[in-house]
Amino acid sequence: MFDDLSGKRVLVTGASRGIGAAVARKLGSLGAHVAVHYHSSEAGARDVRDAIVGDGGKAVLVKGDVSRSDEAAAVVDNAADQLGGLDVLINNAGDMLGRVTLADIDDAHYDRVMDLNVRSVVTASHAALPYLRRAGGGCIVHTSSIAARNGGGPGAGFYASAKGFVSTLTRNMAKELSGDNIRVNAVAPGTIATDFHERYSNDAQLEAARATIPQGRLGTAEDCIGAYVFLVSDAMSGYVTGQIIEVNGGQLMP
């Protein structure tokens, strides 16, 4: 069903853990050649790379702090150099970087949140554009969040706003790049049980979220894989661009 993914050159940012790691592994199992990006979690990235290679796939590692414009561009260039070009960019790197309320916000925290969640997406997409054009087209998939629509929980307003930026940018990029045969979409996960919530949510917060989910459980990284694979596959989604796919168990039904 996904034969068109075989040999596709894919960069997944933030691929050392959570959703990014699950997506990278799945694409590798489907024959894509995957650049596994990480910043500080080298061991996790190596595990993802080794799992893909161990199953007979092709994967390489790329390191860099994508919140910095120069390093984000270098990550894209490194991935393209190792893979021999680029067909797909998945902008998955992002983090809340702590729950900070409006009363406690300062410039440093604001800059950190926006640089990681917004600047990285803009800069990596800009750097990938020449490679995608050279390939005759391709696709970009951003990771947004349910927070982009519901505003996020207490102390998550800046993260939620950054993800709202990503969702809006997705639609604009889809319009701008359609003439280059480049599709641009996003996946917006809901409350997903990864180390993200281990760091930023307590048991009471997670139980309150679970109670709002019609399917009655928190999501997993594996629950999100299908949306990314669908959007990367031209055979499955060749006429889909500018869309935000919500993956949240019914927690939000826009």
Please provide a written account of the structure:
There is one protein chain. The protein has a single domain (3-247), classed as Rossmann fold, CATH 3.40.50.720. The protein has helices at residues 18-29, 42-54, 69-83, 107-134, 147-150, 157-177, 195-200, 203-210, 221-232, 234-237; strands at 9-12, 33-38, 58-63, 88-91, 138-143, 182-189, 244-247. 48% of the residues lie in helices and 15% in strands. It is α/β, with parallel strands linked by helices and 254 residues long. Helix 1 (18-29) crosses helix 9 (221-232) and helix 4 (107-134) packs parallel to helix 6 (157-177). The protein has 10 helices and 7 strands.
Q: Which characteristics define this entry?
A:
alpha/beta, about 250 residues, globular, about 15% strand, 10 helices, Rossmann fold
pLDDT averaged over residues? 95
Number of discrete domains: 1
Task: State the shape.
Answer: globular
Distance between the termini: 29 Å
CATH class: Alpha Beta
CATH architecture: 3-Layer(aba) Sandwich
Structure summary, number of beta strands: 7
Structural class: alpha/beta
The major beta sheet can be summarized as:
7 strands, parallel
Instruction: Classify the oligomer.
Output: single chain
| Helix-strand sequence | EHEHEHEHEHHEHHHHE
Radius of gyration: 17 Å
**Can you tell me the CATH topology?**
Rossmann fold
